[in-house]
User: Fold this.
Amino acid sequence: MSLDAEQVKKIAHLARIEINEADIPGYAATLSNILDLVDQMAAVNTDDVEPMAHPMDASQRLRADVVTETNQREQFQSVAPKTEDGLYLVPQVIE
Amino acid sequence: MQWEVVIGLEIHAQLMTNSKIFSGASIAYGAEPNTQACAVDLGLPGVLPVLNTEAVRMAAKFGLAIGANVSRHSVFARKNYFYPDLPKGYQISQMELPIVETGKLEIELKDGTKKIIGVTRAHLEEDAGKSLHEDYQGMTGIDLNRAGTPLLEIVSEPDMRSAEEAVAYMRKIHSLVQYIGICDGNMAEGSFRCDANVSVRPKGQQEYGTRAELKNINSFKFVEKAINIEVERQIELIEDGGTVVQETRLYDADKNETRSMRSKEEANDYRYFPDPDLLPVVLDDAYLAAVKATLPELPDVKRDRFIAQYGLSSVDAGILTVSRATADYFEKAAELSAAAKLAANWVMGEVSASLNKNDLDINSCPVTAEMLAGMLKRIEDNTISGKIAKEVFEAMWAGEGDADAVIDKKGLKQITDSSAIEALVDEVIANNPAQAAEFKAGKEQLMGFFVGQIMKASKGKANPAQVNQLLKQKLSS
Assistant:
């Protein structure tokens, strides 16, 4: 399977990665290689194999429902670019 | 053309845990911004989510309550999208293997029709934070206290055919999650939210029309209005030769209209994949049996029991069992007073009216079920009339003690001494000779006038049945 330039741009947009127009053919080729590998794996007969959700053969450990975290806002916000009234400020997002 | 409406609901119920679904931060409502957002909630590098045992138990409890299949093996997945109130760039949710699959609920409509609505699935996920778009000069403020709050998303089949059905279903789920103690149902605080998928198709057509998703509608009234207005919009659009676009729409209650919010054409680009940070959740039969044992009597069962045990009408039993607290209150008052129907009328009447007026919850009702029962007993044994009882109720509400104390203190004991009542009757007849003559001449409507005068003269304390009887005797003699 090979990806075209539009698909590469869409993937980049979904990942919010800025790419150069000149690099697109290269990305298309390498990403297509990965998909080819997936195709190859998909060709293997897995009829008797149970789907695996996780490589570790274990189940989820559960945590008691107890509040263990204290307020560390000041510390967390000391590395934030901009805060006000206890809020993190980000470039405006309007739907 | 005849149109058929098709509705499916996605309900988000916030689970009543103490801490978040994957972290030990508190989920208490109303805290200062970002004081309950820990490193896990902020998605800082190097943190790992650890699943809250209570969130799992509550989801299982819901599944068991709707007779669904609670999965022995469920898996968390990442739903990827970018938005500033989602710091990790993905929401941890469940996709292929949700914890609850295929249940159903029975709803009842106003005309008494019953209908089964399928529940496709219910899955666990984390909530996002809140964005505040005003007040920050060209910036958006982000509060991540809500990020990581446990949600159970309950997805229905597209089984509903009218806004009324949708509201009935939503109310049913709302009542159920509170009954089983997994959600406080507080819609104003966003603990219970609803998205509606709405489409229309020509009657008789098999395939569904294109749907629009109405987001975050936060009251029963608005769900009904939003669906109706959206249905109207879609039908008009199609009849004018247009086509419905699959999109998310926002309901504007002020204008009573829906408007496009963002195009969901990229809906398939959430790129779900199993979250490698979390292992499959495995539940065994013993666990599920133990959870099942904690289920309380569910609303439908309780309603049927109220009808059978207390002789209530189906409508009354339905009203009394919407909330477990109301049902418990009624049942206690009914048991203690041994006057179930009277108790039902009072709970649905004075008690709920007073609670509404004072914006109180039945759990904080100043007149306890015991106090109400004490008063009902006095109605039953003719110590007070139903009318005087209202006065007693108000006094109890105002904290003046229990029914016997109020009756005693205010001298409200009903007059049942027939000679005393006879004297009152004679007096009133003597004072109103003209009316008495008219009555005797056949104007029987005046009965009400005389009863009123006598009750007034007795300050409402005369036993109404005796008054009626004596009055008839005297006036027809």
Summary: The first helix of chain B runs from residue 39 to 42. Chain B touches chain A through 53 residues (CB under 8 Å). The two ends of chain B are 70 Å apart (CA to CA).
